[in-house]
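Note to self: keep these together.
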Amino acid sequence: MTVNDSSDYGLSDDEIEFYRHKGYLRIPRQAHGWFHDLAELRRWVAEIQQWGLEKGKWRHYYETTDGKHLLWGTEKLMEYYPPMQDLIAGHWPLSLLKALTGREMVVFKDEIGWKMPGGKGAVPHLDLPAYSLFAPKFIEIMIAVDAHTVQNGCLEFVPGSHTEAVPISADGRVEPAWLEGKEFVPMLLDPGDLLIFNESMAHRLAPNRTDQRRAAVFGTYHFDLSQPDLRDKFYAHRLIHSPPENGKAPPLPSLTRPDERCALRRPGADSVRDRQLGSKQRRRRVEQINECKGITLTLEPFSTSVVADSGVSSN
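Structure:
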């Protein structure tokens, strides 16, 4: 078994202080001892990469670059691959995060970012805007499956940026003026290394300019224990607003001008735009809202993280 749940990784005071000050923490595989067998982790990932486009299960996302249709991310792993349940939501990662933050946490997103050869990069951004509707505070654990290098588009952080009010432009990018004089530090990782970071870290990625994949397993965790079903709500919303290749939802009726924000209302809401819909459109609208499992906020279409120069989110 690759996952070692029999012992906790004891964070040092220096590691906790580094995370608080810098906003991220790297833990080498040799130090954390989470995996008995890295080859087994790679086997799991290789099997998931071969999953097909069956609908209603896992979710495959693709990007197109230089005429190539590349697998970019696979989400919602845990229901369909039990070892990923242990890896992402087991005792070990949750105890690690509690030691780091002093708080209990719950998984609300699980995925593999593939970063195939030729995969796109991302301009400087924060992950917070992508998930703030659901979790205003969260932490991500990234497990490097392959080596992460500058050449294949590793994450690059501005250390300490989580302590600043980083200005974000309307398109989700970090404002250029804030970037002046800022240094991005590449997160170089060996296979099996961990990288932990929070929602407010300014980061960027270069394209993968190599002929090899640069994969990583991600777990994203929130602090609100009163919402143990937040993951279900998140994925229901995401199915509508950022549908995967193997689960495209029918488009919502066009309710707004192109320059307006799309709003979902609770079924039965008294809205002029709702009354303008035909009966069939109205029924489908209610069905789609019901699929969101009771989310009552005003929701906007979004995708994971920010689009780079290409429109693809950053993994």
